Structures
1.
Amino acid sequence: MLHLRAVCPEDKTEQAVAILRAQPGTAHLAVHRGAAVAPVGDLIEADIAREAADDIIDALCELELDHTGGITLETIETALSDAADRAEEEAPGEGADAVVWQELVGRTGEEARLNVTFLSFLTIACLLAAVGVVTDSPVTIVGAMVVGPEFGPLAAVAVGLVLRRWDLVGRAAVALAVGFPLAVAVTAGATLLGVATGVLDAGALQGDHQVDFVYKFGIPSLVVALLAGAAGMLAMTSAKSAALVGVFISVTTVPAAGYVAVAAVLGQWDRSVYSLIQLVINLFGIVIAAAIVLMLRRRKQRSEGAERPLSRG
C-alpha cells in the first residue's frame, strides 16, 4: 500500500475526492478542509493499492494538482485494516507488478544528479576496486561493486529514453561522463602515489590472477550486463527493490573502471584497454536491457489500462 497526500485548491476538492472514491484501490479516504496553508487549500489523504496508484496520480494530475497544489506518495510498510485488505484485493492487477511512473521518474531523477555524494561513492568504489586488483582480492572487488552508485544514472537514461524525458537522459549522461573520468583520475593518482612510496609493486599485474575476469570481456560479459539491467529495472519498477543488491554484484562496471586506472599506471596498456571495453559493454548492456524491460512493462500496463478505464466521477 501507498499513502497519498494531496494539497488541493478548494474548487478542485470535490473532483479529487470523486476520483479517489471511484477507484476500488482506495482506503481510508480523509479530507481536511482548509488545512493547507502554503499553498492554500484542502488536504486530502488516502491509502491506495500500489496497482491503482498510477491511474489515480494521472487523474489528479489532469486536475493540475501537481501545479496548483501538490501530490506526495509514501510507502506503507504495515497496514492493519480490513479496508486496506479489500482495496488491495479489489484493485486490478498485482502490487508487485505495478509500475508507478511518476515515482519512477522522481526516483531515477534524484539518483541521476551529479553531486558530491555521487562522485564520492563512485570514487571510493573505484579505489576499492583498485585495491582488489593489486591485492588479487575478489572479495574486495565485490565490495566495490556494492558501493558503486552507477546503476542510478544508468536506470535514469533508460527511463528517459523510454518516456522521452531528454532532460533526464541529459542529467544522467552528465553524471556518468563526469563521474567515471574523475573516479578513474583519482584512482590513477592513488596508484601513482602507491608506486612512488613503494607501497605498490610496479609488477603487481604481471602473471595470472583471480581478478582477471574484470578485464576479460566477451559475449558472457554482454549477457551478464543485459541480465543485470533487466533485473535492475524489474526491481526498480516493482516492490522487489531488494533484488538491486544482486544487480550491483553481478556486473564489473566499477571494477573495470578501477582496473583501467591501475593497468594504465603500471604500463599494462592492453589490460587497460580491455578493461575500458568491458566498462563500455556493461554500461550499454545495462541501459539497453533496462529500456527494453521498461518498454514491455509500459505496453502491458497501457493495454490493461485500456481494458479498465478509470471513472473520473
2.
Amino acid sequence: MTDNPLHDKHLPLTSVSSGKGYEALPEIYCYPVQIVNVYLVGASAGSDWVLVDAGMPRCEDDIIREAAERFGQDVPPRAIILTHGHFDHVGAVVELAEHWDVPVYAHALELPYLTGQAHYPPPDTHAGGGIIPSLAGFFPREPVDLGERLRPLPEDGSVPFLGDWRWLHTPGHAPGHVSLFRDRDRALLAGDAFVTVRQESLYQVFTQHREISGPPRYFTPDWEAARRSVQALAELTPEVAMTGHGRVMSGESLRNGLRHLLDNFEEQAMPDH
C-alpha cells in the first residue's frame, strides 16, 4: 500500500518556514512558530474552532493575526487545548487566553506546571544527537500560571468542542502529555509523543527533513513511558500524523517509520547514557 494521494496533496512540497501556515488536512491548519507547530482545528470562514498548543513566547500577535485571516476578525476559538506544558507549547498561552477570553484544557497531571506550582525537571544537556541538547539548559522551565482559565480534560477521553476527536494519555515526554485522535480518518495530533524531525539537530530543524523520531531527548525524563506511548499511537495505525515539531507525514511512510522507531527505540530515540 502506498501513501494516500488524497492526503499527500495537502502536504507542503518544500521546507516549511516559520510563519508560513498550510492546511495539513481540511479543517486542520498547521502554523509553524519558530521551532514548533500550533494547530488551528475547525472549518474556516467564521466557524467554531479550537487552538491546539500555543507556540513560543511572544508569538501571540502572529497567532492572533493568522487566526483572524483564517476564521475572520473577532472569531475567537472555543478553547485552547494543550498537549503538554513545555515552554515551546505554552509560550503565548496566557496572553492568548486573556485576549480571546477562553478556557484552556490540559491533562490533570500537567496542571501543576500550568498554575505556577511546579517546574519541569532540568533538561538532559548530554542527550546527544546534535547541538540543541547542549543549548537546552538555557530553555525556560518556569511554569506559566493560567489561574481560573485552566481546566482538566474530561476523564472520558472526549475533547471539548471537538466532538469527533478523543484524547489519549501519552506520557514520557511530560507526565500529562496527551495526543488527539480522530477515528473517522485516523488523523493524529501527536504533540511531542513522537516528532517528524530529529529535533536535536539544528541542521535538520532548519531544513525540516522528514524523519520519524522519538520525543525530543533533552526534555524527556521517562523513556519507558515514552516507548509505551509510541506503541499505543502506532497501534492506532494513523493515516496522517501532525506533530509538535516537523512536517506532516502520512500513509505507509508514517506507519513504517513508527514501526522502525519501535523496533530500534533504544538506539534511535534514547540518549546513549
3.
Amino acid sequence: MTEKLLEVISDITASAQQVTNDILLLKFRIVNLYIVGEPIGRNSKWILVDTGMANSERAILEEVHKLYGKDCPPQAIILTHGHFDHVGAATELSDYWKVPIYAHELEMTYLTGEKDYPPADPTVSEGLIAEMSFLFPHEGIDLGHRVRPLPSDGSIPGMSEWQWIHTPGHTPGHISLFRKSDGVLIAGDAITTVKQESLLAVLTQKQELNGPPAYFTPNQDEAEKSVKTLRDLKPALVVTSHGTPMKGEELKVALENLVASY
C-alpha cells in the first residue's frame, strides 16, 4: 500500500473537465487546479488557479495550448496557498509566461523562502494518506520577484467578477475565490469533496464534503471559522482542490452537516 501511495502522489498526468462555460478543471491524481476565463479561443483573457505538483508544468501547458494556443498567456497565476501540491510548477509557469503570481499577504513568508510550514501531523486522523503524511514536503518555496500580495480590497487581478475570501486554518494565508453573480466558489483546501486522508477515497473519488486535510491543518479553530464563512456565502457550486464539483441542494445540506460536525 505504501508503494501505491507513492505512485498516487507522483502521478502528474492530467485530465480536463469543463465545469462551467468559463471554468476548466485540470484534475491530477492528488490535486485539482483551475483555468478560469473567457470562452476558449485565441487572445482570450484567463487566469490559472494553483499550479499542482512539481514537474506538472508540461501537463498544464499541453492543456492550455489545446485551449488557447501557444501565444495566449494568462493574466496571472493565483495561489490559494503555498503547500507543495499547489505551487509545484509555479516558478516554471511564471517564467514561461512571464506573468506574476498572486497570493494572500499572510502567505508571502512561505512563498519567499523565509518560513516553512509545520510538518504534517499523521496522528490527527485515520487513513493511509494521513498515516504517511509525515513524508510530504512542508518547506516553503522562494518565488522571489515573481510573487506579489493580492490587493487588500478583495479584488483579484485578471478576475474582474471575482473576490478573494480569507479562509485560514489550513494555512495562515489560505484564500478561496467567490463569484457572487452565480454563486460559484473555488474553495482551495478550505473544504474538500473527498476524504483526502484516505487513499481509497482518493483513488475512487467518492464524493464526501469535508474540511481541509487534517494532517496539514495546524489551526482547526480557524479552519472551522472558514468553513462557516463559506457556508454563509450560500454557494450554488463549489469546486475544490481535492475531490469533484458539488452543487445545489446536495451542497447546501452537506455544508450544514459539515458545520454541525465541528
4.
Amino acid sequence: MINEFTPRVAIITGVTGQDGYYLATHLIEQGYQVIGTSRGQTCDKIPRLKNLIDRKLLFVETINLEDANAVGAIIDKHQPSMIYHLAGQSSVGISIQDPSGTFSSVVNTTYHLLEAIRQKSPASRIFVAGSSEIFGVNQKQPVTCTTPLNPQNPYAMAKAVAFNLVREFRRSHGIYACTGVLFSHESPLRSEHFVSQKIISGACAIAGGRQKKLHLGNLSLQRDWGWAPEYVEAMEKMLTRNDPSDFIIATGQMNQLEDFVAQAFSEVDLDWKKCVVIDKQFFRPNEGSHPSADMAHTTQHLGWTATTTMNGVVQKMVDACQNHMSECE
C-alpha cells in the first residue's frame, strides 16, 4: 500500500508509562516531532525521559486530561497530525477499589480528546489504547474487534465505553479514530503492581538472597503476553493507513500464569514450587481465563505480526532485572 500520509507532530498522552516511552522513542526514530503529556509528574526526574528532553527530542506539556478546556487548548495549540492516547488508570485491581476514578481517567479523557479533534483539529488522527479486558472471560472462540463485549470489572467497563466512543465519533463525525485492542504486553519498564513484573522481580530477588518467598494469586488464569516495544510499532501502523480501523494487537498465543512463573524461576535456576506461596488475598473476582486473539485481520490488513511471545518476554525481562541488580550492587 502506498501511504501518502506524512505525519509531522505527534502527541502522546501518558508518555511517562511503559508504552509512552517506547512509542516516543520509536516516533523520534521515524523523524516525528513528539510532544508528551503528563498530569504533573516531573518527567525530567525520570532518567529515560530526561535524556530525550535534554536532547530536545521530546517536549512535555503538563495537562489534566479530565479538563475539557485544557484538552481543547492543547489540541488547538499544536494541531497534531496524530494523537496516541495511552493515559489512564490501567490496573484492574485498582479499578475495583476506585471505579469512579478509573471511569473518569479512561472514559472522560477519551471523550475530551475526540471532541477536541472534532472542534479544533478535524484532520488529526487518534489512536486510543484499548484492552482485551473488554471481552470478559470464557469466550468460546478467538476474539476479533466484532466480538460482543462482556466486561467483568470497572476497568474493562470503562475501556468498553471508550471503545464504543471511538467508533461513534468515527461513524458520526468522520474522524480518523481507532482503537488498538491491546492484550497483555510487558517490558522491564512495567511497575510492580503488574503481576508480570512482580514475578520477575521476585524471582531475581529470591535468587539473589534478598527475598525468601513470592506470594501470588490464581496461577491458572491464562493470558497472551507480548513484548511492548513491538506493540508500539503496531500503534504507528494504525495511524498511517489510508482508512481508520480497529485492530487486535496480540501474539495469538495463550499461556497460563503458572507457565510464566515457571519460566521466570527457571531463568534464575530455581524451582518455582519451592519459592511461590499461593495467597488467597491476591485472588480477584471475575478473574477467569482471558480470550485468545484472532490475529488474521491484523496480519492481513495491518501487516503486523508479533515476533516475541511469552518465552522471549520472560527471558528479556529477567535479563534486564539481573543487569539492573548488578549495577546497583
